[in-house]
Amino acid sequence: MKTIGLIGGMSWESTIEYYRVINETVKECLGGLHSAKCVLYSVDFEEIEHCQAMGEWEKSGEILAGAARSLCQAGADFFLICTNTMHKVYRQVQAAVPIPLLHIAEVTADSLAEQNVTKVALLGTRYTMEHDFYKQRLQDRGLTVLIPGQKDRKLVNRVIYDELCLGVIREESRREYLRIITQLAEQGAQGVILGCTEIGLLVKEADSPLPVFDTTLLHARRAALEAMKEDLKGEIK
């Protein structure tokens, strides 16, 4: 089994979900007392969020690159950035180490293709919704990406940072998210990407008027399957 490297802490609320899903997937596939081989480097999210707010993306990239080097030295065979937004510095972080970085948007695009979804709604931080680093990955795979209007983008972003990243789950916020998803469905979206690793704490498949593509679950499960490829004798695609 390969060793999975995780750059977490952005926020730690969703990093817990990564660890849970990875180990549940290994248990499901291998049975017995099997669990995943993981190395976790958890950053201080306050420092990262400050870089985001100030537009200091290169500085935040340096922090994550340092984390990636530590994972590599600790024996990770490949690694994940356990957040959507910080894939903005994907190239900078990948360039720092010789082991591969599993891109969350590529994993999500694979799942969308499997479900024959071509037009998809995207919810996430304002950086993920508004900047090209994430949407372009999806568009390069032939997907049409819909995002909320400006007022609703501010609401989605506020709930992420002021509530979900602090472990606060509010029914009022759930209703607002579902309202936004419904509006995007009316615009032709065939599914919705929960493009922030905390949104899955608030919106569940059973709640949504659209099929849900929870990036935390997709990313973590793919990592586990990638780690087990040899144990499963190449059965995993």
Written description of the protein model:
- The protein is an alpha/beta fold.
- 49% of the residues lie in helices and 13% in strands.
- The chain is built from ten helices and seven strands.
- The protein has a four-stranded parallel beta sheet with strand order 5-4-6-7, with helices on both faces. The protein has a three-stranded parallel beta sheet with strand order 2-1-3, sandwiched between helices.
- Helix 1 links the parallel strand 1 (3-8) and strand 2.
- Helix 2 packs antiparallel against helix 3 (57-73) and helix 8 (150-162) packs antiparallel against helix 9.
- The longest helix has 19 residues, at 12-30.
- The protein is globular.
- The protein starts with a strand and ends in a 10-residue tail after the last helix.
Number of helices: 10
Task: Order the strands across the largest sheet as they lie in space.
Answer: 5-4-6-7
Give start-end ranges of low-pLDDT stretches: none
How much helicity do the residues have?
A: 40-55%
Number of strands: 7
Terminal residue distance: 16 Å
Strand content: 5-15%
What does the radius of gyration come to?
17 Å
SS class: alpha/beta
Based on Cα principal axes, name the global outline: globular
Chain-averaged pLDDT: 95
**Element-level helix/strand string:** EHEHHEHHEHHEHHEEH
Major beta sheet, specifics? Answer: 4 strands, parallel
Brief digest:
By secondary structure, the chain is of the alpha/beta class.
